[in-house]
Amino acid sequence: MFLNSQKALLKSDGTRLDDRLPSHVRPAFLKTGAVSVAAGSAYAEFGSTKVIVSVYGPRESKKAQAFSDIGRLNCDVKFTSFATPLRGKAGQDVSDKEFSVLLHKALEDAVDLHSFPKTTVDVFALVLQSGGGDLPAIITCASLALADAGIVMHDIVAAISLSCVGKDLLLDPTYKEESQQDGSVFIALMTSRREITQVTFTGEWSSTKASEALELCCDACVKLGEVMRVCLKEDAAEATEDT
């Protein structure tokens, strides 16, 4: 039995279709060192969303950086042609470009650009499977890849999104939940500093609802940050043992 027969996103016991509570995130799998030829890399799964990120550099910039004593962070996001049924159709490259800009905005304040002056760090993200929460997964995975590459960062960045469906707030939504949302929140957070690097609201929100949504997202990012740190420590330990 469903509580909402029209949208059918919550069951009668208050859980979602994947048995999570509204305030719970999807199971996450994180792994660094996914691409051996890159300076750093990471692979992330959040439910059915799968992302891989490669980092190259610092290396000499291909673009002129005259009169600049800081480095350049380049971000490029692509979706595989099989990531979703909609990929490959006309206009889909728009979201690639938009996600590239948003990834850069989420990371630029966390990366110490002064640590690699007059050079460039390139971040390449590839979405292998789109299952909802794509941008947060990309940002989280990219932050791990930068750390794996040894790029100096002020803090790691975790990201999460939330969908508002009717009166319900659904943290870390699936693709189906996103497709039926009335509004959404996206947040990227430096998890130790508790500093937001990016936040976006869509739809109409009351101040009370917006505060509740932000609190849920910030708490989820902090917890995700702890998982990211464990991943980095464990993968570094494994690498040391292998050598």
From TrEMBL:
Keyword rRNA processing set for record: yes
UniProt xrefs under SUPFAM superfamilies: Ribonuclease PH domain 2-like (SSF55666), Ribosomal protein S5 domain 2-like (SSF54211)
Main localization category: cytoplasm
InterPro entries per the UniProt record, alphabetical: ExoRNase_PH_dom1, ExoRNase_PH_dom2, ExoRNase_PH_dom2_sf, PNPase/RNase_PH_dom_sf, Ribosomal_Su5_D2-typ_SF, RNase_PH
Entry's localization field: Cytoplasm; Nucleus
Domain Exoribonuclease phosphorolytic: 25-151, 155-216
Protein's GO biological process: nuclear mRNA surveillance; poly(A)-dependent snoRNA 3'-end processing; rRNA catabolic process; rRNA processing; seed germination; U4 snRNA 3'-end processing
A Gene Ontology cellular-component term: nucleolus
Entry-linked CDD domains: RNase_PH_MTR3
GO molecular function list: 3'-5' exonuclease activity; RNA binding
Pfam family membership, one: RNase_PH
UniProtKB keywords: Cytoplasm, Exosome, Nucleus, RNA-binding, rRNA processing
Entry superkingdom: Eukaryota
The protein's name: Uncharacterized protein
